[in-house]
Each structure stands twice: as C-alpha cells, then as structure tokens.
TrEMBL record:
InterPro entries, per the entry: ADH-like_N, ER, GroES-like_sf, NAD(P)-bd_dom_sf, YIM1/Zinc_Alcohol_DH_Fams
Protein name: Alcohol dehydrogenase
Domain of life: Bacteria
GO molecular-function terms, A-Z: oxidoreductase activity
Coiled-coil intervals, chain numbering: none
UniProt source species: Pseudaquabacterium pictum
Positions of the Enoyl reductase (ER) domain: 10-330
PANTHER family listed in its UniProt record: ALCOHOL DEHYDROGENASE RELATED (PTHR11695), RETICULON-4-INTERACTING PROTEIN 1, MITOCHONDRIAL (PTHR11695:SF294)
Gene3D superfamilies: Medium-chain alcohol dehydrogenases, catalytic domain (3.90.180.10), NAD(P)-binding Rossmann-like Domain (3.40.50.720)
C-alpha cells in the first residue's frame, strides 16, 4: 500500500511516498481504509528526532496521527465496531501512522464518525479535540466563570479549544493576527489581542488558566497574566519530570527533563502557578463524547485547506509555515 514515510531522523529525514506492506492486525485492532487524515505540528516534529527518546517508531515510519475512514477488517477481540463502520481516530504514539491508504487502529482509540460530518471534517478533529479535552477538562478542570487564555486562537488547537472553553462557561482570551480577529470572535473569544499591534502580556490580566501553544517566551509571558494558584498546561514544552515518570523514562531522561523545565518551573513557583506539560493520548471514549458535541453542532470543525493524497508532503510544508486558519487535511478518497 502507499504511505507517506520518513526514513531517518534529523535534517534529512527523506519524507516521501513508499510502498509498504499492508499492516497485520492484533486481536484488539481494526484495519481502516483511510479516507482523510489531518496533519498536526507534531507530524513535522517527529522526523527531526525531537521526541525520538519518548515516541518509538520502527523506521521507515508512516507519518500522521489523525484519520477518518471505513473499517475493512476487525481483530478477534473487537466488539464495538464492525466491517463497514465509518470511524475517526487519533493513533499518535501507537507506533504507526495515518497518512496511508490503510491504517491499523486499536479499538480503544476509535469512535464512530459523527453522521453530520464528512470524512474530511471528521479527520480534522481527533488530535486537537483530545488535546483540548485532556488539557482543559482533565488537567485544568476549567469551570464556568473562570478566565482561560488560549494563544494562537486561529490555529488548529486554538479553534477547537476556544469553542470547548466557551462551552464550559469560561471567558476566553486569545491572540491572533489582524486578518483572523473576526474568526476567533465568531468562535467565542471574549478578549482578542492582535499580536501585530499589541503584546498580550500588557493587555490581559487575572486569568485562571492558560494553554501553552506557542514556542519561545510565550509560556513565561503567559505565567505573568495568571492569578495565584492558576494553571498553565504546555503543549510545546519544556518537558518536565511528571511527564518523564508518566512515560516511565529512565533516570538519565528524567534528569534531562528536570533540567529542561527547571527555569519555567521556578518562574511558575514564584508566581504560585502550576506548570505542566501534556502529551495527548489516544482515547476512543473521549472522542465519542466529542463526537456528540459535533453532532449537536455545539462545536464545529474549522478547516483551512484540503490537499489530495499525492500532495501530503506539501500539506506538511504548508502547516509548517504557521499560517493555517484551523486544520489542514489530506484527502485520500
């Protein structure tokens, strides 16, 4: 079968199409014919080797985490799905990829595709939906009436997270460029900072929680706008000791992560703010709950651009430019 793969880690990962064997199933797996797969920033980070120590692939490895498609085969222990079911899933960190004609999806990672979404729309959701859900509902425990800062509001995470935070009854602040102010306001953002005109840390005050979605000094600046006992969950690093322990990392990696996060942890402690790093996990039950919100149109997909399968590498290159309004999706069928 045809798949978008990378052959090595580093500056020359040789990303391109390869003919790879159709994957074999374990008892709890399903084989899904992929109709669409969205791309995420992590898909560009993996080939660099940045997460090589904690995310394991057998090279050459298929890229991609999100997918929507149709079940064509089920393992002997699969009970929730059958051949012919339309599903969507995130398979990040499960040792395989989604930008391919077929993908192996563990039963526990999948949910039925919402009936009101096509495959492209459904494929845009899993990673951003699960990341937002796990950061905002689980890690932060956002409550009605609280204030949540979600930077880069017009991006893939931002467009979903704003809607989820508003659904939970929070007041939302965000940053975006001039051309996207109307978009994020329509999604529900209450305070919008045009980063081309102002610095958010000089405008926003007394927030209860923040997402870290932008590299550089944005995390430190976000800590500065939080109330005492506020929470910040970073999706971009630095990695911390709690993450190392959750991954059962060895002592050397644990020390490395401690050193990486020492400065930000110290700054957060001075402000009486809780800092943590989040790696979203595949979770079909949570995805099913998200699917219900999509079916009820309480959250809507936001898609910037759709690329044909043959241009999957171009989709990754486009995403890397950092200008996408919502999600970028690769359509196979």
């Amino acid at each position: 079968m045809k798949a978008l793969t990378f052959k090595r880690y580093g500056k020359s990962p040789e990303i391109g199409f390869s003919d790879v064997p159709r994957p074999a199933l374990k008892a709890d797996d399903m084989l899904v014919q992929v109709h669409a797969a969205s791309v995420n920033p992590i898909d560009n980070m993996i080939p660099t080797g940045l997460f090589k120590a904690v995310v394991k692939f057998q090279l050459p490895a298929t890229l991609g985490s999100d997918l929507a498609g149709v079940v064509t085969e089920v393992g002997s222990r699969v009970t929730r799905f059958k051949v012919g079911d339309a599903v969507f899933a995130n398979i990040f960190d499960l040792g395989t990829g989604s930008i391919a004609e077929f993908a192996v999806v563990p039963e526990s990672a999948a949910a039925l595709k919402p009936d009101n979404l096509d495959f492209v729309q459904a494929a845009s959701i899993p990673m951003v939906g699960l990341t937002s859900w796990q950061a905002i509902k689980e890690r932060i425990g956002l409550r009605a009436g609280q204030k949540m800062f979600i930077p880069a509001g017009s991006g893939g995470i931002g467009t979903f997270a704003i809607q989820l935070a508003k659904l939970l009854g929070a007041k939302v602040g965000t940053t975006t460029s001039t051309g996207n102010v109307e978009l994020v306001r329509n999604l529900g953002a209450d305070e919008v900072v045009d980063y081309k005109k102002q610095s958010f840390e000089t405008v926003l005050r007394d927030y209860d929680a923040a997402l870290g979605t932008v590299r550089g000094d944005s995390i430190e600046k976000s800590i500065g706008i939080l109330k005492p006992r506020g929470k910040i969950v970073s999706l971009v690093g630095p990695l911390d000791v709690a993450f190392a322990r959750a991954r059962r990392a060895n002592v050397v990696l644990t020390v490395v992560f401690a050193l990486m996060s020492r400065r930000i942890k110290s700054l957060a402690k001075k402000r009486d703010v809780d800092y943590s790093f989040l790696f979203a996990r595949a979770d079909g039950e949570q995805l099913a709950q998200i699917g219900k919100l999509l079916e009820a149109q309480r959250i809507r997909p936001v898609i910037d651009k759709v690329f044909p399968f043959e241009q999957a590498k171009e989709a990754l290159d486009y995403l890397a430019q950092g200008r996408a309004r919502g999600k970028v999706v690769v359509q196979m069928r």
